[in-house]
Amino acid sequence: MRLAVLRVFDKTFVVPRGPVHESFNSLLILAEYVFTRSAVANGILSESLVLSHVLGFAAGTYLITPDLDMADRKAVTPLRFWGPLRALWWPYGRAFKHRRLSHTWLLGPATRLAYLMALAALILALAARLKSPLPGLLFRWVGDHPGLVGAWVFGYFNAQWAHLIVDRVLGKPRGRPRATGSRHARVHPRPRGRA
Ligand SMILES: [Zn+2]
User: Fold this and answer.
1) Residue 42 Cα to ligand 1 middle (Å)
2) How far is 87 from 104, CA to CA, in rounded Å?
3) Residues within 5 Å of ion ligand 1, judged at the Cβ atom
4) 3-class DSSP state for residue 13?
5) Which end of the chain has fewer CB atoms < 10 Å from its terminal CB, N or C?
6) 61 in Cβ contact with 22 (< 8 Å)
7) Helix (H, G, I), strand (E, B) or coil at 124
8) Dihedral angle at the C-alpha atoms of 57, 63, 64, 68, nearest 10 degrees?
9) For residue 164, how far is its CA from the centre of ligand 1 (angstroms)?
């Protein structure tokens, strides 16, 4: 399993890389799909509700993750899937410090949704100005399908929580500050008091 060493709050942390998150979340998505089959077959859950939750989970795994807080300085894995639109996340990375507010359970995921909704609002406002039927159709669809929207949002939040759990389980502080990072640094620790 590939891990990265990162200094946060003057401590050295071992943090999981994107592929670790993606693999873990992909397993959860697969497990959810398999384990809900009988509930769907028995009419306890609707297929569309499960699919909407799975899509939200997938979006929160591959496209919108807490690690976008590094989008301004690192080629974090979700940016790969945004292609030419990756620049959209640059301001988010600039505004949020890594593993602070962006990595909290409720507010963190909400900041990314709010950020996306603000971008979407700009596009919809432009579309409305151009007399496009798109905004009207979209708002009508959302109003007609609150359950699907709720399942998507819940799936998205679940993916963020899975990310945070992996970060917390694998992202334990490791060793003494300044003494880790490389073999050379461990063998020759810098004298204290020097920059
Ligand atoms: Zn993270």
Assistant:
1) 38
2) 24
3) 66-67, 167
4) strand
5) C
6) yes
7) helix
8) 140
9) 6
> Who wins on pLDDT, 125 or 12?
125
Give the pLDDT of residue 9: 37
Report residue 91 as tokens: 């301001």
Q: What's the Cα-to-Cα distance from 10 to each of 62, 162, 179, 195, rounded to whole Å?
A: 30, 25, 12, 13
Give residue 43 CA to ligand 1 midpoint distance, Å: 37
CA separation for the pair 164, 84 (Å, rounded) = 27
Beta bridge partners of 5: 14
Please report where in the chains the tokens 């959209």 appear, as a residue: 88
Distance CA 101, CA 92 (A): 12
Alpha carbon 101 to chain centroid, angstroms: 13
Q: What Rg value do the Cα atoms of the chain yield, rounded? A: 20
Query: How do residues 37-74 score in pLDDT, each as one tens digit?
Result: 999 999 999 999 999 999 999 999 999 999 999 999 99
Alpha carbon separation from 39 to 49, 84, 93 (Å, rounded): 12, 40, 40
What one-character DSSP code corresponds to residue 8? Answer: E
- Residue whose entry in the numeric block shows the structure tokens 């080629």: 75
